[in-house]
Write the C-alpha cells for this entry.
Amino acid sequence: MEENEISNIIIKCAIEVHKFLGPGLLESSYEACLAYELKQKNLRIQQQLSLPLIYKDVKLDAGYRIDLLVEDKVIIEIKSVEAIADIHIAQILTYLKLKDLKLGLLINFNSVLLKNGIKRVINGYL
C-alpha cells in the first residue's frame, strides 16, 4: 500500500475518533482510540516507538518517541493543543528524517472541525 492510500485511511479513522470523542481530551486518549481504529482496518501499527538519534556513528537514546507508525511508512504525531505551531511541524519533520520516511501526519484533535487540524508533512518538501 502506498503512503497516500495509508494516509487516506488514517484521516478517515481520525475523523471517526474525533466525531465520537470530540475535542478537549488528552493526546493519549486520541492515540489509543486511533490505534484501535487503524487495527480494525488491518493496518500494522507501532505505538510510542522509540527513535534513537545517530550522532557521529553513535546511537543515542535522546527520548524521541513516534506516537504511531503505520505500515512502516507513515508517522502520525498526535496533538491536543490550541493551534499547531511551527515547533510541532519541526518535530514530525525531524522524526521523518531520523526514520528516513516521506510522509507524516500531524493531527490536532483539539480542533472543532478535525480537517482544520490535520497537516501533511512531507520529508524534504515543507
